[in-house]
Amino acid sequence: MSTIRRFVFLLGVFLCMAAAFATGGGALPESKSSVTNDTPPLAVAPPPFSKGIFPCSECHKPDDKVNRTPHAVDAHDDIVFEHDAQHRWCLDCHDAQQRDKLRLASGALLDFRESFKLCGQCHGDKLRDWKAGEHGKRIGSWDGEKLYMLCVNCHNPHSPRFKPMKPLPPPTPPGPLP
Question: 0.70 exceeded by the pTM?
C-alpha cells in the first residue's frame, strides 16, 4: 500500500472513531460499583479483611456502650496503631454504632469498598493519582472494565508499611545540546 493510501486509510479510521465517540456510540461501558454519585463509577476489589475480624457486628452491637476516649483495646491487641497516632484513634475512621461501616469526618458512613474516600480526606493527592491510574494497582483491559485495588490492598491503614522518606533534591537541568 502506498504512503498516500495508508495515510487516507488511517485518516478515515480516525474520523470514524471520532464520530462514534462524539455520538456516544464508542462510549466505554460503565463499571459496576458501590461508589456514590459524587465519584465516577469504579469497580473496586474487596478489602483484604483479616480472617475472623469482619463483620465487626459479630462482636460489636449498635447499643453497646462506647468509650470514646482513646485507650488500649484488649480485643484488638494485635493491631499496632501508628497512623498519625498522636492525632487519630479508632473512632476517627470506624463508626461507633455501625461497626461494619467507616465514617468520614463529615459523619457520612461508607462501605469498606469505598475506603478510598476515607483515605482521600487526608491523602488527596494520592486519591487523585489513584483515580488517574498513577498510584496503586488496576487489573483489567486498557479499553474496558478495570478493577481498582483499594489503598488497603497495599497499605496497612493502622500502621502504613511505607515509612516517610526524605525528598531527594530536584534534578539538575541538562547542559546545552551538542
Answer: no
